[in-house]
Amino acid sequence: MAGGARSPVVVRIQRNDFDVAAETAALTAGRTSIGAIVTFTGLCRDENGALAALELEHYPGMAEAEIRRICDAAVERFALQGIAAIHRFGRMAPGETIVLVIAAASHRQAAFDGASFVMDYLKTSAPFWKKEHRADGSAGGWVEAKDADDRAREKWKR
Fold this sequence. Notes:
7 strands, 4-stranded mixed beta sheet
């Protein structure tokens, strides 16, 4: 950015839902050098009707710091002009939003790569825990980390 100004980095962890359009407008307001915006919104799935809700817990303070570190790395690596990462906590029903990532860049590929990078690292590095609440009333367990998420993150180390 001109004059050495830093690219906007927005990191929030909140219980309430977010407004994708409002968050995008806030990140890009008055910034005519942005040529591409990529948004990713993650939703709670019902796991083929088996899930009644997903409960997310986080480590306050540490989670925000880790997400900021990830976002700062994305800004540097992909020359992003802005990045927002908003993650919810608490109990969410299927269809409700969980996470929002908005990447703004001069060109589309940087925006796509920046958003993907942030999500791949957020899924594996940010201190969040997910507990399932089963639709049949049986006890749900804590969701285990997935090897596929680790493999997705590893592609960025090449």
